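Appendix B. Chain record.
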Amino acid sequence: MKHLVIIGAGNFGREIFSWAVQCNEYNNDWNIKGFLDDRPNILEHFEGYGSIIGNVDNYIPEENDLFICALGEPKQKEKYSSFILNRGGIFTNIIHPSAVIGMNVKFGKGIVVCPQTAISCDVVLGSFVTLNIQSTIGHDSIIEDWCQINTNCGINGYNHFYKSVYMGGNAVTLPHVEVGENAVIGAGSVVLKKVRANETVFGNPAKPFKVQEINTNRNS
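Structure tokens predicted for this chain:
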């Protein structure tokens, strides 16, 4: 039997634990071994989540370990997942049984697809992509590695999200929109046209935001 190890025991870590328990694979192909986090007491006020078994900096993958990353900020997700990848760790996908998935969808590794999401046909999801609750991806879209799509987002058809895009909750993109690498789409925004790499946009219609970071309520 395989043993699932969750990287990060914060808010999103507890959510992923919940979704993992509800997956069809649970108690068939793997059980939940525990969390990697450098905050040993972070779960002490919560019941039923198991334990912190170590931290990412010094954990050595063991035989039959499988990993999933529960960090919501793309750069942090890449940083800490890479520690495990570089030591030979193997990442699995967590796909909730309530998700609706169309024909010819291609998945990378380390993907999280949360409850009540919908992925249309002929979509490509790169590795370490998160699609949070009740979000949708339209047909013929490409979502590259490390992207974080938060709750109730709507990505329309023929979109292309380059690596490490962060999309805040309740944001929407129109069809044929391109979003550059490391871009941030603020919560509630409506994106009508191309977003450049490293650009932060916000509003309806979404426009470049002058401040370096906005409060997008990022999961941690």
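Further analysis of this model is presented in Appendix C.
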